[in-house]
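Usage example:
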Amino acid sequence: MTPERWHRVEEVLQAALDHSPADRAAFLNEACAGDEELERETSSMIAVYDDASDFFAEPAIARDARVIINSEAQMHPGREIGPYQIIRHIGSGGMGEVYLAHDPRLDRPVALKVIRAGLVFDEALVRRFQTEARVASALNHANILTVYEIGQDDEFFFIATEYIDGPTIRERIRAADLTLQDVLEIARQLLSGLEAAHVAGIIHRDIKPENVIQRHDGVVRILDFGIAKLLEKSSPESPSTTSPVVRTETGVGVMLGTIGYMSPEQVRGLGVDVRTDIWSCGVVLYEMLGGQRPFDGQTNADTLVTMLEREPEPLFGTSGQTPPALRQIQVVIDKALSKAPAGRYQTAAEMRTSLEKIKTALEVSKQSGAGAISAQTNVRDLRSLAAQTSKSGFRRAIAMTVAALLITVMFAAAFMYQRQRERARARLLAVKAAPKSYLQMTEAEKLAFIEAQEQRISNMMGDRSVKLNDEALRVIKVRVDRYATRQNTAALKPGEESLSSTYARAPEYIPVIARAFTARKIPTVVGVYLPMIESAYQPCYENEIGAKGLFQFLPSTAEHYGVSRAEMCDVQKMAPAAAHFIADRMAELGDDAQSMTLVLLSYNRGEDSVRESLRRLRETDANYERNFWTLFANRDKLDEGFQRESAWYVPEFFAAAIVGENPDAFGLQMPALSSFAR
Amino acid sequence: MSVSAASVTQLLFDWQQGDQSALKKLTPLIYDELRRIAHHYVKHERNGHTLQTTALVNEAYVRLAGQERPEWQNRSHFFAVTAKVMRHILIDHARRRRYLKHGGQFQQVSMAEASLMSEERAGELIALDEALDELKNFDPRKSEVVELRYFGGLSLEETADALEISVMTVRRDWRAAKAWLFRRMARTEFRVQASACDYQNMSNLKVEL
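Running the assembly step on the lines above writes:
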């Protein structure tokens, strides 16, 4: 906009704002006198004026006070917290910030972990903080970070610990300079520290490379007992008293990546004991040697499935050609990563002893020649060595692979695989099915939940399951989140309806809708949730452009499908018309109608636009998956109209369905909506 | 506080003279003051009271610059810096929040930190930031009015004083800027042009991509 143009626009805008709201439209029409663009410009601003005033009614700080309170660079050098003077910020922990600080009383550096006191918003955080302090200060061991002091001043809780100038194991793995000896030594010390904790009745529960740090003199220290658990010897944990899955108490502060380190029983929310730490040590050992985690997936849900269902890829062979040390290490890893706790080392000491034996043997052995390994071998070289030694089996492996491939192709393995994955997912889901409230889930759990549910609803729609990318999941999630917040009636915005009132309207109409949709061979789930996103199940809802009824038909469309203007609030009339309308869209889409997501899109946008989008996509890839999500992932190649709709219509549908099919998770006192269709 | 009141005044003066390093030195002090103000908010939120940010910002100025009769120029510059720092913190947080969202999942952004701002709010703030930059191109004064009012928390009167314009002018600038910005935000944030086809209301269209 040029200043000149803006000058003109503002003049009209200001004059309009001087009029009463009711007179503004008429005023603009007259004042713009045929300058359509000016009128459009100004009326669009007038249209949002009330919302704009709401938005700007309170200064940002009123809304974002907590961000400010917790913003980084919060403490500048020289600032005093308790007796300590901040030197610099050194990291963000799962909770609170960590600073290098100076203790003037003893003239020594300390690592100061700090959270603001008096923040009501996160009592759990404060609790964790205190647990950490209490637990860690109870432990006095060479391989556990020494806690100097736990304190509180007017503004902060703080924990002062020894300051370690050295890399975390994560950093060492990244640097790729670990030798076999380093790995064994780190693992030995890690296990030794855990042993002490376990003996003291403390389980760490969050062992991962980030939480293990090594001093420059080689001493390893375990950090972050923030989610540690005190074993209560008198009352053994039973599954019924612990809540399911990746618990929030672990969730707070656990980076999303941490899922890869939890034991199966921890993920399942079963009781955990010291053996959960053994598992995590196995993962860390594997990662130090192999450079990657034993269980990994594109999404957290994949990682969880892999971890619960599959054995990790062995790092080293166990054949005669594999150096004995590596064979033995493989055995240790396999044992630590046994899915059943009973199959693992029962104590950290046992695992440590096994590793120590291997280490000693390595140090005394004097191997030489090609393929020989020593304690000083870099672990990277072990990996290539492992690849070499398995060469002899190569031919056989190829033969088997070819055979397997053939069989696979013959039996359409892709399909089987898909099925298998679905089953794995369903099992995972069953594990998670304990009705956990969506709002109580961690971000990772929410995404995993949405991913699984999206698959389920796609299946209900008769669509081939496709794997959604992260972005697609998050677009759905934004909407599910919005539904979820409407559970809390106290937090409703003006004019907003509670989730339970909205969903309670649906059962009355669903049988009629289901009949109409079944008659046209359209999956009923489509008919069940379209009204939710179109009209929130208000049979006589009319929008500002005159679309009306449960399915939001324009009067002209309704008439075309044999429903008069007067009948538009009548569900008995509208449901068959909607089914008919959708059947027509399916017919128009032809082959592409195999995907209900595309039909939905066409319901909203018209088939021309969908066809055009599909055509453009075919130009780039003739074999694309025909469904909305493919369009979504490629939307930058599509027209603006598509981009606009892609943003919300289909994701909104899925969000509404995810809520309706999981009433328990959203605090709805009713069965799943689809059950009313039967 | 290691920086004396006199030096705050000096730093404000230097900044006004175009010395950017003065702003760097001022920023941590202002950070702390903003946090103090934010604490008031959190506390009052619990009591259900609304607060006059202006009073708090003024109080912050007096605390930093000392009790002696504050130099007028410096005071308004203090407000300007405060508003800028505020904007900076929030936008920075919003962008990191976004980064977290866009697959930066192994970022060391704690959940505790991420929970401070909703994705939706982050989207709003980024859209506002962009819109303000654009507004600045063709109407810099309005952009300043908004910065002072929205990020600095100043009243109409304080804003008028700070910019040395009449209250009436601020009032008119404010309302026109609000309308323009909000519509502009709707376009960036929702990537939607309000059109007759969008038959859900605007608030339903908010989506972050």
